[in-house]
């Protein structure tokens, strides 16, 4: 717990005496206001440990070098720093090929006569 205290994030812990912990709690209605809450030590530790992850678990963060806004540039920088080639691009496949791969049905052939279907343009509506 000492490491967590050094990093900060305990601005809501007001005072800590042996049997009781005084903490500040945010109001549900008014997010900017806080009010004091007195908890016994067991309840304070129970609430605190709800935020501690089990061993080998990692927090998922949506910011940093893999945030959506700079992911491509950051991955390029990371790959050059690690001297790693980018993975090959997935092969381009048409919609008909994708449907055949997923369902096993070839939509380019007629289901009755097994002849090749011809793709025709949709008729244009008059303006």
SSE order, as H and E? HEEEHHH
* Terminal CA distance: 72 Å
Weakly predicted, low-confidence segments = 1-8
Mean pLDDT: 76
Subunit organisation of the chains: single chain
Query: Mind describing the biggest β-sheet?
Result: 3 strands, antiparallel
Instruction: Write down the overall geometry.
Output: elongated
Output the number of helix runs. 4
User: SS-based structural class?
Assistant: alpha+beta
Fraction in helix = 25-40%
Strand order of the largest sheet: 1-2-3
Q: How many β-strand runs? A: 3
Gyration radius (Cα, Å) is: 30 Å
Q: What percent of residues are in strands? A: 5-15%
Structure in a nutshell:
It is built from 4 helices and 3 strands; from the N terminus they run H-E-E-E-H-H-H. By secondary structure, it is of the alpha+beta class.
Describe this structure in words.
28% of the residues lie in helices and 14% in strands. The protein has 127 residues and is an alpha+beta fold. It has a domain at 2-49. A 3-stranded antiparallel sheet has the order 1-2-3.
List the helices and strands and how they pair.
Blueprint: H1 2-7, E1 13-16, E2 20-26, E3 34-40, H2 41-49, H3 71-82, H4 95-103
